[in-house]
Specification:
This protein has 2 helices and 5 strands. By secondary structure, it is an alpha+beta fold.
């Protein structure tokens, strides 16, 4: 197997793990009763991975498998937070350990 094939396989595994993590977060968002719907923006390569609509607010979630956010992504998230209205809540979900998820609220919705 060539180096290119190994890197391509590793990239595919990273994408698959990221997709599985996003689905897990999305399932957790659908459980509360006040959730109207939840959408995953697959393949958009944007800042936000999941948008959840609740009765009183909109939650925009960025998912990270390892918790690392590059400086460019930090700037993009900061711009998104500045541009978003008050009823939008922005969160970051990531794996703290291989089995434990963590959530950080980057911007709290004003209701």
């Amino acid at each position: 197997m060539t180096t290119y094939e190994k890197n391509a396989e590793r990239g595919y595994l990273n994408k698959r793990n990221g997709d599985a993590f996003e689905f897990k977060v999305m399932r957790g968002q659908k459980k509360p009763r006040n959730t109207l719907f939840s959408i995953r923006s697959a393949g958009s390569h944007g800042v936000i991975d999941i948008v959840t609509m609740k009765k009183d607010r909109v939650i925009c979630i960025a998912c990270k498998n390892n918790g690392y956010i590059s400086p460019k992504e930090r700037n993009d998230i900061a711009k998104f937070i500045d541009a978003s209205p008050d009823f939008v809540q922005v969160e970051l979900h990531y794996y703290k350990t291989p089995r434990k998820m963590a959530r950080v609220i980057l911007k709290k919705a004003i209701i």
